[in-house]
Each structure stands twice: as structure tokens, then as C-alpha cells.
Amino acid sequence: MAQIIDGNKVRDEIKEELKPRIARLAAQKRVPGLAVVLVGNNPASEVYVRNKVKTCQDLGMRSEKITPPESITTEELLAIVNQLNAREEVDGILVQLPLPKQVDTKRILLAVAPEKDVDGFHPYNVGCLVAALPAPRACTPAGVIQLLKRYQIPISGKRAVVVGRSDIVGKPAALLLLHEHATVTICHSKTPDLPGVCREADILVAAMGRPAMITGDYIRPGATVIDVGTNSLQTREEVARIFRNSSERLAAFDKRGSVLVGDVDPIDMAEKASAYTPVPGGVGPLTIAMLMVNTVESAERRLGVC
Ligand code: NDP
């Protein structure tokens, strides 16, 4: 039976480990503070931001939400970011993406002070990642490494295949695996014979945003599969096909009108992998946990205690 890598459990461990660090900072009157900028009324972004703010509260960290209107200009948003950069008590700044079309996202991300860039998206921090220097790492890929390490899945010397080359998941995940001494292949939409390449993987990381596309013939028996994908199935037919008529999933669909699935076929993955992350409850919970880690580390660095 394949081992299920429980992201909720790992998230809780990480949160527990942060508590004494936060208490130490609080004792020095430096409670770590996260500022989240949420532009407009994107319902998905609102849910993500609510969860981030709530996690800060659970941990006794300071958080604030800045909610400019959808119509904001690049210059106005730059002014908000610059004010946050200048505020001593703000350790982390997160600009929730996506931004409205009229806003130059690259300019905004470049404006965030690198030491407060808790998303790890600033080119300075990307450079530090490439050079393996200490700096905030992109949260979801950092979470992938935490899951592997905490489940004692060997990385060094293993073949890792990452499907997806985005700046926020695929590329940083591949670099982090490389720093852990895996032999890494990065795949994308132009990769020929994707199933063949994926079958070489001891560790297969799927981050494409294609519901259940990685089926059994992509998975080497006994591989570890990390499914980063988070896709919402919107039709009963899709749910029935992907979950092989599972009455539980169909009931969930009938209740909520949608069901989540990763990029990997959940049933094939459970049959062929030796360990895997479920969706939901795998990689997802780690993203916020690593954001908290980055914010606490930023406060510690800025106070000179680490
Ligand atoms: P992007 O859309 O930015 O990137 C997708 C990548 O997948 C691209 O590199 C693309 O290739 C590649 N790709 C797409 N289709 C195929 C295909 N048919 N074959 C091979 N490669 C393909 O997505 P993100 O990286 O932002 O996110 C990926 C997934 O991870 C999404 O489902 C997202 O929801 C999820 N996610 C989950 C998080 C979590 O907390 N659990 C956090 C962030 C993301 P190309 O470059 O050639 O176009």
C-alpha cells in the first residue's frame, strides 16, 4: 500500500516549531508582521488571503490586509508597496496575484524590498536560490522539499522529474531538488515523450494545472509522486470519469458543485506510487506554512537573531 504524505500533519508540525521562535521575537517586542495586498474582488484570492491572515492570527503574528480597488494603477500600487517597505514593523509583504490587467505585475514584484519578499519571487531572491544562498524561497516549492524530508524520502542521488516550468512552482522546485543533490529534469508543454521521461523519475513532481493528466503510464512503479496541481472539476461526468464513479466524490460534487483534483490521476497514483501527496491535503497546506516560516525568518534576520 502506498504511503500517503499528509500535508496537514506536516503543516501542523511546522506551525508548532514556529511558536517558540515567535514567542522569542515577541519577548523582544518584535512580533513578526505580514502585510498582504489584495487588489479587487477575486473570490479565489480572497479565500487565499483569508487563510493567510487567519494562520497569522493562530500563531500570534501580526497581519494586515490592504485592499485597494480593482481600478488601481501601477503607480498607486507602487506607492503602497513603498510605504510597506519603509515600515519597520512589517517583516513580510505579499502582493496577492493575479493583479488586474492594467497593473504591471513585474514592476510591482520588483518593488518589494527583497528582505521582505516572503513569496521569494523577487529576482534578487531568485538569484539567491540559483546560487544556494540564504533568502526567502518560493513557498510551494519549499513545501515540496519539506514533505519529502519529513517523510524521509531520499532525494540525494535520485532522479527527479518536474513537470511544469513556471517561475513560482516548477523552476524553483527543480532548483531546490538540485540543491538536495537529485538529478533533475524539467518538462513542459513542448517536451517529447512526456510519459517516457516521467517514468524515469524516482520523484515525480507534477505542477501543470492539467486535471489528472499524469496517468499510470507516466509513473514508475514505486516512485514518489508529489502532486502540486489544484484543479476544480466542474462537471459530474469529469468527476465520474476521473474518480471511477466513486460514490463519495460524486456525493461531494452534488453537494458543492465542484470537486478538487490534482494533475495526477488519483487512482493510478495510489496504485503505482510508493508514496504520494493527495489533493486536497498534500502540498496545499504547506504553502501557507512556508509563508509563515519566511515571515518569521525575515523578522529574525532583520533583528539579527539568525
Ligand atoms: P502555470 O500555468 O504557470 O505553469 C504550468 C506549467 O505546466 C507550464 O510550464 C506549462 O508548460 C506546463 N504544462 C502545461 N500543460 C502541459 C502539458 N500538457 N504537458 C507538459 N507540461 C505542461 O502554472 P503554475 O506553475 O502556477 O501552477 C501549476 C499547478 O499548481 C496549478 O494547478 C496550480 O493551481 C497549482 N498550484 C498549487 C499551489 C498549492 O499551494 N498547492 C500553489 C501554486 C500552484 P509551458 O511552459 O510550455 O507552457
Structural description of this entry:
- With 306 residues, the chain is α/β, with parallel strands linked by helices.
- The chain folds into two domains: 29-117, Rossmann fold (3-Layer(aba) Sandwich); 139-285, Rossmann fold (3-Layer(aba) Sandwich).
- 44% of the residues lie in helices and 14% in strands.
- It is built from twelve helices and eleven strands.
- It has helices spanning 7-27, 43-58, 74-86, 105-111, 123-130, 139-150, 170-179, 194-198, 236-242, 247-256, 266-272, 284-303, and strands spanning 3-4, 33-37, 62-66, 92-95, 159-163, 183-187, 203-206, 224-227, 231-233, 259-261, 275-276.
- The strands form three sheets. A six-stranded parallel sheet has the order 1-11-8-7-5-6. Strands 3-2-4 form a three-stranded parallel sheet, sandwiched between helices.
- α7 (170-179) links the parallel β5 and β6 (183-187).
- α2 (43-58) packs across α12 (284-303) and α6 (139-150) packs across α7.
- The N and C termini lie far apart (42 Å).
- The mean pLDDT is 97.
- The structure holds NADPH dihydro-nicotinamide-adenine-dinucleotide phosphate.
CATH topology of the largest domain: Rossmann fold
Q: What is the CATH homology-level superfamily of the largest domain?
A: NAD(P)-binding Rossmann-like Domain
Shape by Cα distribution: globular
How much helix, percentage-wise, in residues? 40-55%
Number of domains: 2
Query: What's the CATH first level of the largest domain?
Result: Alpha Beta
Radius of gyration from CA coordinates = 20 Å
Largest sheet: 6 strands, parallel
Give the number of DSSP strands: 11
Low-confidence stretches: none
Strand residues, percent: 5-15%
Quaternary status of these chains?
A: single chain
Total number of helices: 12
CATH architecture verdict of the largest domain: 3-Layer(aba) Sandwich
